[in-house]
Every structure is written in structure tokens, then in C-alpha cells.
Specification:
three-stranded antiparallel sheet, mainly alpha, binds iron/sulfur cluster, 217 residues
Length: 217
């Protein structure tokens, strides 16, 4: 009893202590599922890009980029899909499914672990924050290595959209393969740099100022 009749009328709902933990794991499962689907699309041959032929490859059939109506229809479908998604789920998409947010959360987690619970090293216009007791070279190096490993791993996903899986495997295992373009190492390096900079420094900046999905928020 609160002593106030008006406060006593407010219904009280008891929420089980474990519900937020359950929600957390459901969210993690959805995030992992989205990344797996992003890999399965090219691995299954559902969609791949052939820049040399100037075509999309859908289930072993080529769709030329010059085929205006199909390509225009595809972009129209993607744009409408984004609008529809924002209208129906709003920013829930960011927290539950967007790979950019998944990467940001991973990076935040390691940053807090190695540089302090309130650490912030991303370029969002604010001063860098690092716990005095954790501001050690070893912690910075370990964080850099973890982010580099994540960038190298995630950079393989775009490659799957340009090369068949066995060619990507040859690339990973350093096996000689004549189908590997000599420029592939440069392309991969550029992807790694982009992912590294994104994860390490501009992960929040990207969401605030560069994301198209943000246009509707
Ligand atoms: S704002 Fe854009 S990039 Fe950021 S989490 Fe949402 S959809 Fe992803």
C-alpha cells in the first residue's frame, strides 16, 4: 500500500527476472541467423555478382546489368522493402538484425572489457574515454588484434558474392588457383581496411550520419 488512493489504482505487473536474459539470447540468435543467411545466399548460388560479365548470377542464370527493367525492378523492390521494413518494425531492425549493429556491439563489448566500462574510442565527435587503470599498450594491442581478426573474417563475406565458394576456399588456404584474379588480394585488403575503420572508429558515426535506413528515423 502506498497510502495514496490514486497510486493504489495503478496495476502492478510482475515480470520474471529471467525475461530480459531470454530476450537477449533471442536477439543474439537472430543476429547470428542474419549473418548466416548473408553467407548462405552466395554459397547456395542464389545470388552472385559477375563484374567481368556485367551481370548478376541467380541460380546459374545471368541477368545482365543492361537489362534495365529487371535491374530497375530489383532496386525498386529493395527500396520498397526498406520502407516497408521501417514502417513495420522501425528501429527494431537495427537492434535485432542489422550486421552493422552486430559488429558495433561486438566492438563495444571488447572495448569495455579491455579499456574500461565507460571507454569510448569511436569517432563520434566526443573526447576519447579510457579508464586510467586500463590505458596500457598491451590492452590497446589486444583490442587492435581482435578488431583486425573480426575485419578479416567479415571481409570474406563480400568475396563470396564475387567468387564461387571453392575459389574463396583456395584464397583462404593460399592454394594456387588460376580463377583467382591477381587483384583479389588488393580487393580483400581494401575490404579489411574498410571493415577495420568501421568497427574501430566510425561504428556509431555510420549509424548517425551515413545510413540510408536512418533517413526515415
Ligand atoms: S542505423 Fe542503419 S547501420 Fe545503424 S544499425 Fe540501423 S540500419 Fe544498421
Amino acid at each position: 500500500m502506498s497510502g495514496s488512493p490514486s497510486l493504489d489504482k495503478i496495476p502492478i505487473t510482475v515480470v520474471a527476472a529471467g525475461s530480459s536474459a531470454r530476450l537477449h539470447w533471442r536477439r543474439r540468435t537472430v543476429q547470428a541467423a542474419v549473418l548466416i543467411i548473408a553467407m548462405l545466399i552466395p554459397l547456395s548460388g542464389l545470388l552472385r555478382i559477375d563484374p567481368v560479365a556485367g551481370a548478376f548470377v541467380v541460380l546459374d542464370r545471368q541477368i545482365w546489368w543492361s537489362d534495365f527493367f529487371i535491374i530497375f525492378g530489383l532496386w525498386l523492390m529493395l527500396a520498397s522493402g526498406l520502407v516497408l521494413m521501417y514502417s513495420s518494425v522501425g528501429t527494431a531492425f537495427c537492434g535485432w538484425a542489422c550486421p552493422q549493429n552486430t559488429l558495433s556491439e561486438l566492438a563495444n563489448r571488447w572495448t569495455y572489457k579491455l579499456l574500461g566500462r565507460r571507454a569510448d574510442v569511436s569517432l563520434a565527435g566526443e573526447k576519447m574515454k579510457v579508464a586510467a587503470g586500463k590505458n596500457r599498450l598491451g590492452n590497446w594491442l589486444l583490442l587492435g588484434l581482435i578488431i583486425l581478426a573480426a575485419a578479416m573474417l567479415f571481409s570474406l563475406i563480400p568475396l563470396l558474392y564475387f567468387y564461387p565458394p571453392d575459389v574463396v576456399w583456395s584464397f583462404i588456404t593460399l592454394r594456387p588457383d588460376e580463377r583467382l584474379a591477381s587483384s583479389l588480394h588488393y580487393i580483400y585488403t581494401i575490404f579489411v581496411i574498410i571493415f577495420f575503420v568501421d568497427i574501430a572508429f566510425i561504428r556509431h558515426f555510420w549509424c548517425r550520419f551515413m545510413c540510408v535506413y536512418k533517413v526515415w528515423q
